[in-house]
Amino acid sequence: MPDFSVPTPDTAGSDTAGSDTAGSSPLRVAVTGAGGRMGAAAVDAIDGAPDLELVAALGRGDALEEIVRARADVLVDLTVPDSTEEIVHFAVRNGIHAVVGTTGWDESRLAALRDALAGAPGIGVLIAPNFAVGSVLATAFAAKAARFFESVEIIELHHPDKVDAPSGTAARTAALVAEARRAAGTAPSPDATHTGAPGARGADVDGVRVHSVRLRGLVAHQEVLFGSAGETLTIRHDSLDRASFMPGVLLGIRSVPAAPGLTHGLDAFLGLDKA
Ligand SMILES: NC(=O)C1=CN([C@@H]2O[C@H](COP(=O)(O)OP(=O)(O)OC[C@H]3O[C@@H](n4cnc5c(N)ncnc54)[C@H](OP(=O)(O)O)[C@@H]3O)[C@@H](O)[C@H]2O)C=CC1
Ligand SMILES: O=C(O)C1=N[C@H](C(=O)O)C[C@H](O)C1
């Protein structure tokens, strides 16, 4: 597994950065959604990290108080959009940092979380739409490319057991692409469609068309398609296995105690905000 635990520009010098734990006690980590696809993989990854100690693994129906009783330093939430907000606010109220991979964090939820964190000095929450480094890079590349093309559309492709559409990654990519195009004064993507079947043109996310495919055999994939006269650019990322998410989960756990307030996206912990 690639190891991002070496100190990054943001974490260098912090107590919690790096895997060299000589002289310091392991970070105590709790996981909600521990029985799920991602939660189970995260539990294994945390178990395998010498600088981390898994102190609680909760499923639906387990009392959140167990996280406090276990004296967790960091909670990793990998549940469902309906549960994540309550769980993360519980952690913040109880002075526990959180690393959140669960989808469903729209602008109004993020604003409420920022408010809660303002009343919890020193507590950090990472909301990471995607933990895979390739996906984070692909989204950053898409945001960079956004202003240079007339047209943009996103296709996200996932396993059919996913409960939400579009994916959190696609929503975040669309938002960043839209922001870059607005800042550059780019016109909306041209589209002459005026008749057609409902849904045929995908969902409108911040002015960007997003198409969601659900197919057995897939894990998590995304294409951002750009087009201008005579050329196209496709930025594609594929997670072929949930192993792809684990280095990012571990980086989030190690970095979040030194990052008070809300961090949206793994970018800053990878030093990408300075690239
Ligand atoms: N950021 C990233 O890189 C990634 C994010 N994700 C996101 O992570 C989330 C989980 O995905 P995935 O593991 O595939 O989904 P799963 O459905 O496999 O897992 C979700 C788990 O959460 C449990 N759960 C639901 N509510 C609660 C609760 N209140 N307390 C404790 N546990 C609860 C469910 O239990 P039960 O089955 O009993 O309902 C289930 O075991 C999704 O939002 C997904 O989009 C996924 C992959 C990567
Ligand atoms: O449910 C999934 O599987 C995934 N969810 C996240 C999302 O919605 O973007 C991250 C990744 O795409 C896998």
Question: What features would you describe in this structure?
Answer:
- This protein has 275 residues and is an alpha/beta fold.
- The chain has 2 domains: 27-131 and 242-274, 3-Layer(aba) Sandwich (Rossmann fold), CATH 3.40.50; 133-189 and 202-239, Dihydrodipicolinate Reductase, domain 2.
- The chain contains 7 helices and 11 strands.
- It has a 6-stranded parallel beta sheet, sandwiched between helices. Strands 7-8-6-9-10 form a 5-stranded mixed beta sheet.
- Helix 3 (81-93) links the parallel strand 3 (74-77) and strand 4 (97-100).
- The chain is elongated and about 60 Å long.
- Residues 6-22 have low confidence and may be disordered.
- Residues 103, 129-130, 158, 162, 167-169, 220 line the site of ligand LZUJQKHR.
Main sheet strand line-up:
2-1-3-4-5-11
Q: Assign the CATH architecture of the largest domain.
A: 3-Layer(aba) Sandwich
Sketch the major β-sheet: 6 strands, parallel
Percent of residues in helices comes to 25-40%
- Class based on secondary structure composition and strand pairing: alpha/beta
Note the gap between the termini: 23 Å
- Helix count equals 7
Q: Roughly how many Å is the radius of gyration?
A: 19 Å
SSE succession: EHEHEHEHEHEHEEEEHE
Mean pLDDT: 93
Strand content: 15-25%
- 3D shape: elongated
